[in-house]
# Entry
Amino acid sequence: MKVLELVLSQKAYGWSPEELHFQYPHLSLGQIHSALAYYWDHRDELEAAMLESVRFADEMRSRYESSLQPVLRAKVLL
# Structure
């Protein structure tokens, strides 16, 4: 699991480290605290990576969305 995935779960749901541990039992509480500490020590770098991922997803969506819409409409999926 990526640090950003854990941080996004915490931000989206307001989960405490203990709740994160309950939701992701394969991670120890120590691993969760370490991941959160890493995030805060590298916040700018990780936030920039997250924004780049969003930008890339938006670009791909705009590039391919128009060609997929007619196909999905024909199959009544949209």
About this structure: The chain has a mean pLDDT of 90. The chain has one domain: 3-74. Residues 43-74 form the longest helix (32 residues). The radius of gyration is 18 Å.
